[in-house]
Amino acid sequence: MSDVIRILLVDDHTVLRAGLKALLNAEDDMRVVGEAGTGEEAVERAKTLKPDVVIMDVSMPGMDGLEATRQINALGIGSKVLVLTMHAEEEYLLPVLEAGGSGYVHKTSADQDLSHAIRTVAKGEVFLYPSAARLLLKGYRVQRETPHEADPLERLTERERDVMAYTAEGFSSSEIGEKLFISPKTVDTYRSRIMEKLGLTHRSELVRFALKTGLLKAD
């Protein structure tokens, strides 16, 4: 049972929750352990259940999904929040990451992408569509601030920069390891060292930093 991903479903539409629950419980490695219809309820259920992954709708009565994501993240229980919404990426992608979310899935493609996204964020990775990564990079380049005293990238070794760049592109630790000819565990060690050097706490912050500095691999 320790290999089963425990999931909390949060959406104000009961019928949608029922459909998602049936879809996810059909997976051998997933189990929906709770449901919530409001942001406030989501925070309380997360506090009690401590799920591995929270599937969060953005638009709900009362506390919205972004604030609920912030509060769940602040609990320090290790639950990863995956946002599931109909909204355009341009409007919500950056706020989702800033709130501490680990990824973004379109409701229209949930039947194809949701299970993969859940497995991705449960491993501590960030789930982003390629279009989302490009969108973030474009936005950061437009809004990019002038450098302060020193370039923070100078604190990183070349290998650490490689790991950060591939992380920003959405590659898993195993995939990065294959590209750099190192073990996934070594990739995780590099990533932890990067976060420590840059004063980052969450994986989503690392992704945002890499995108902000333009540190992306060109295929």
Give a quick set of tags describing it:
2 domains, 12% strand, 219 residues, alpha/beta, Arc Repressor Mutant, subunit A, globular, 5 strands, single chain, five-stranded parallel β-sheet
List the helices and strands and how they pair.
Layout: E1 5-10, H1 14-25, E2 30-36, H2 39-49, E3 53-56, H3 65-74, E4 80-85, H4 89-98, E5 103-106, H5 110-122, H6 130-143, H7 158-168, H8 173-180, H9 184-198, H10 203-212
Parallel strand pairs: 1-2, 1-3, 3-4, 4-5
Q: Report the CATH C-level class of the largest domain.
A: Alpha Beta
Q: Largest beta sheet, briefly?
A: 5 strands, parallel
| Number of domains as seen in the coordinates | 2
**What is the CATH superfamily label of the largest domain?**
Response regulator
Strand order of the largest sheet: 2-1-3-4-5
Instruction: Write the element-wise H/E pattern from the N-terminal end onward.
Output: EHEHEHEHEHHHHHH
Question: Class by helix and strand content?
Answer: alpha/beta
Structural commentary:
- This protein is an alpha/beta fold and 219 residues long.
- It folds into two domains: 5-127, Response regulator (Rossmann fold, 3-Layer(aba) Sandwich); 135-212, Orthogonal Bundle (Arc Repressor Mutant, subunit A).
- The chain is 52% helix and 12% strand.
- Helix 3 links the parallel strand 3 (53-56) and strand 4 (80-85).
- It is globular and about 50 Å long.
